[in-house]
Amino acid sequence: MKLRMTRHELGISPELSELARVRSWVRTVLRGFPANVVSTAVMVVDELTSNALRHGRAPYYVRLLPGAAKLRIEVDDSADEPARRRAGGDRGGRGLLLVERCAAAWGQLRRPRGKTLWAELITDPEPVGVRG
User: Fold this and answer.
1) What are φ and ψ of residue 124, in 5° steps?
2) Exposed/middle/buried for 21, CB within 10 Å: 0-12, 13-18, 19+?
3) Cβ-count burial of 122 within 10 angstroms (0-12 exposed, 13-18 middle, 19+ buried)?
4) pTM, 2 dp
5) At CA 105, angle to CA 103 and CA 107, rounded to 5?
6) How confident is the model at residue 23 (pLDDT cuts 50, 70, 90)?
7) What DSSP assignment string belongs to 80-96?
8) CA atoms within 13 A on the CB side of 84
9) Where are the strands (E) in the chain, listed by range?
10) By the 8 A CB rule, do 119 and 84 touch?
11) Strand pairing category for 60-66 and 105-111
């Protein structure tokens, strides 16, 4: 499947209303992937993007990088301060904890002008050639 080695990127505005467009874009890009992978990816992208829009600074970019057995999700913003898990409450604060529970791995990279939050999802539990 050619989709699996293609980099997909979407620039978004600083409005929370962009979250609906981002979710739709993820579903479109990942058409053909198993439903559980798509739903988890939508949730993780939504949380990372929401975090960037609430606590980061423009410009914002969302990337999907499908690989042979995993999907890497990246969200860029221009804030220098690192993202951190916050105490959950009535107004949120559970997003990065949710990402941590859904992803095989996650973290953040500092860039000269901001940061990239990333998460990796397993897309093929048993890659071809590993089955016994």
Assistant:
1) -130, 105
2) middle
3) middle
4) 0.85
5) 110
6) very high
7) SSPP-----BTTB--HH
8) 5
9) 8-12, 60-66, 70-77, 105-111, 114-122
10) no
11) unpaired
What's the pLDDT at 92?
55
For residue 76, list its beta bridge partners: 61, 116
C-alpha–C-alpha distance, residues 91 and 103, integer Å:
23
One-letter identity of residue 125:
P
Task: Calculate the alpha carbon distances from 65 to 10, 34, 39 in Å.
Answer: 12, 16, 16
- What is the Cα–Cα distance from 28 to 88, expressed in whole angstroms? 31
Q: What one-character DSSP code corresponds to residue 79?
A: -
Give the amino acid at 72: R
Residue labelled with tokens 């998460």? 119
- Name the band, by pLDDT with cuts 50, 70 and 90, for residue 130: very low
Please give the single-letter amino acid code of residue 128: V
Distance from C-alpha of 69 to C-alpha of 18, rounded to nearest angstrom: 29
Q: Which two tokens stand for residue 11?
A: 């620039």
CA distance 81 to 46: 20
Number of H helices, E strands in the chain: 3, 5
